[in-house]
Amino acid sequence: MPERKPRKDAVRNRTAVLAAADALFARCESPEDVTMADVAAAAGVGKGTLFRAFGDRTGLIRALYEARLEPIMDAVEAGPPPLGPATPPLQRVPALLDALLCFKLDNRPLALALEGTAGGSPYQAGHYERWHGLLRGVLERIPEPADGDFTAHALLAAVRADLVEHLAGREGVPRERMRARLADFTARVLGSPATD
Amino acid sequence: MPERKPRKDAVRNRTAVLAAADALFARCESPEDVTMADVAAAAGVGKGTLFRAFGDRTGLIRALYEARLEPIMDAVEAGPPPLGPATPPLQRVPALLDALLCFKLDNRPLALALEGTAGGSPYQAGHYERWHGLLRGVLERIPEPADGDFTAHALLAAVRADLVEHLAGREGVPRERMRARLADFTARVLGSPATD
DNA sequence: GCACGATACGGACCCGGGGTCCGCATTGCA
DNA sequence: TGCAATGCGGACCCCGGGTCCGTATCGTGC
């Protein structure tokens, strides 16, 4: 498996496509009105190129998403508190959720596209597995919630892209308010009385 | 607006389509491999008829969903405790969520279809508004959760069709266990220590 | 610098599914 | 029984994801 190095034009095209797609998704109302042909055209590339580079639509979106998410994942896996692994669980859980929420607020169309495209649900998206595993692990280091597995699922559900979109986009809930609400909710789930 | 009564064959066809679609959705792996043409064929009807009766795919699914949901809605709006309006909020919230969970467990493909089809998210589905308004109203009658609006969203997110599908279908979590987990989670959100 | 195999390009093409249209059949009222 | 009005059906259109292959580009050995 010699992992032969790709041709120069191939990588150039790849990055061009990534950039074009990023721009298109950022400027769109709904992710499904960014078509593959659009992306190809915007990148000055043929559809074939696009599909060869990313396999299919999901692959493209995943690549974009991963690129954007990378810094956060780094911070989570090896960064300083409150995201990094050295953080005590009771602070880390809300920090993780807040980071996820902010990420989705900052990348609404992309997150929406990923969660809406990957086979109809985000639960086979790979990312989800990682986040869920992570959260679950942290939750299990505190005694309170009996079942870390389900709790992790339920907490992650509270920051799903379309809910975020609904609140932030449709209803115009301001960012800080959403963060506060989520923090509140998380605190309540963790058992510590927050506001009262 | 005289509300002219429909012809007899029209209503016959409508019910035939409903029945056929119901059967098809019940017997399918994923809702997107039930095609409109399939439904029409199974009902012994032309596509035109189908679209005339229901407008579009979403309309069909909504009609099916509503039919299935009706008994529960009745029980919620005018039934006895623990679902009916006479129930004290602290018991009614978990009862509502449990009912919703059970409903989605019993109608997995349908729920999946509805939440996955309606414009890419369930949040403009109409049903959602109702459930959310209801839950929010009940939540606001208890002092604990500061923001009933967000709390309602977050709790409803925990019983989303694709999460239910993921857990019950993919991971084979048994029904009673899911109900218990959800009850636990709900209790924790409501501030009352449940298991410990 | 050249020639030639390997690699990538691109856009015409295919396919499948949602949705439409209109000539024809059924209905139901006088 | 006759005649609108209403509904039927399936051929048809559109559009988007995905494929294919003749052609252009790359890059390596000489």
Biggest beta sheet summary of chain A:
none
Q: What's the quaternary structure here?
A: homodimer
The whole-angstrom Rg of chain A is 19 Å
Helix content of chain A: 55-70%
- How many helix segments of chain A? 10
Q: Mean pLDDT score of chain A, rounded?
A: 93
Q: Element order, helices and strands of chain A?
A: HHHHHHHHHH
Total domain count of chain A: 2
Shape of chain A: globular
Distance between the termini of chain A: 60 Å
Largest interface: A-B, 38 and 38 residues
SSE-based structural type of chain A: mainly alpha
Count the beta strands of chain A.
0
Low-confidence stretches of chain A: none
Beta-strand content of chain A: under 5%
Summarize the structure.
2 copies of one chain form a homodimer. The first copy, chain A, contains 10 helices and no strands. Chain A has helices at 8-26, 36-43, 47-54, 57-78, 89-106, 108-117, 127-139, 148-157, 161-170, 175-190.
